Amino acid sequence: MRVQSLVTIVLVLVTGVLDTIGVGLIFPVVQFAVDADARSKNPWAVPLLEFAGADSQEESVLWLVATMFVFFLCKAAFLLTSVYYRNRFIWQSQAKVANQLFERYLAMGYLFHVGNNSANLVRNVSQSVTQIFKGSLLPLF
Questions:
Q1: How confident is the model at residue 45, as a pLDDT?
Q2: Which pLDDT band holds residue 75 (cuts at 50, 70, 90)?
Q3: Which of 134, 137, 125, 139 is closest to 95 using CA atoms?
Q4: Average pLDDT over residues 34-58
Q5: Residue (of 92, 94, 87) closest to 130 by Cα position
Q6: Reduced to 3 DSSP states, what percent helix, strand and coil does the chain have, rounded to the nearest 5?
Q7: Other CB atoms closer than 10 Å to residue 4's CB: what's the count?
Q8: SS3 for 23?
Q9: Sheet strands (E) in 1-141
Q10: Are 16 and 141 in contact, with CB atoms under 8 Å apart?
Q11: Which among 66, 65, 81, 90 is positioned nearest to 18, based on CA atoms?
Q12: What is the mean pLDDT of the chain?
C-alpha cells in the first residue's frame, strides 16, 4: 500500500504541474493572436515555429492552437488515468481495511460478541470504514 500511495501522490502532483502548464499556455497563444510582433518579443518561440514551418502570424497562431489542443488532449488522458488509479487505490485500501476489521471481529471471543450489538459491528465494517475513507483519504488526494 505504501508504494501505491506514493505512486498516487506522484500522479496527483504531476496532474497539478500539467494543469499549471496548461494555464500558462493560454497567454502565449493569445499574445500571438493579438500582437503582430509577438515573434520578435518571444525568442523562445522562433525555433519552434520555424520547425513547424509557420512563416506568418496566422500560421503561428494556428500551430500554437493545435499544439495547445494536443497538449490538453494528452493532459485529459493523463488526468483520466490518474483519477482511475487514485480511485482504484482508495477503494482497494478501503476493502482491505474493512476485511481486516471483519477478520479481527471474527477472531474475538464469545464474550466480546455477547457484549456488543451485532448491528454495530456490521455498521463498523460496512459503513464506518467507507465514511472514513470518503471523509479523509479521498479529499486528501
A1: 72
A2: very high
A3: 125
A4: 74
A5: 94
A6: 90, 0, 10
A7: 15
A8: helix
A9: none
A10: no
A11: 81
A12: 85
Contact assessment for residue 68 and residue 45, using Cβ atoms and an 8 Å cutoff: no
Quote the DSSP letter at residue 132: H
6, three cell numbers: 506514493
Give residue for cell 500558462.
24
**78 Cβ partners below 8 Å, 6+ apart?**
14, 15, 18
Where on the phi/psi map is residue 41: left (φ > 0), alpha (ψ -120 to 50), or beta? Answer: alpha
**Cα 37 off chain centre by:** 38
CA quadruple 58, 62, 67, 72: dihedral sign: positive
- Reported as a pLDDT band with limits 50, 70 and 90, residue 17 is very high
Sequence-separated (6 or more) residues with CB below 8 Å from residue 32: 38, 39, 42, 45, 57, 60, 61, 64
| Helices (H), ranges, 108-128 | 110-115, 118-123
Residue at 24: amino acid letter: G
Residue type at position 36 = A
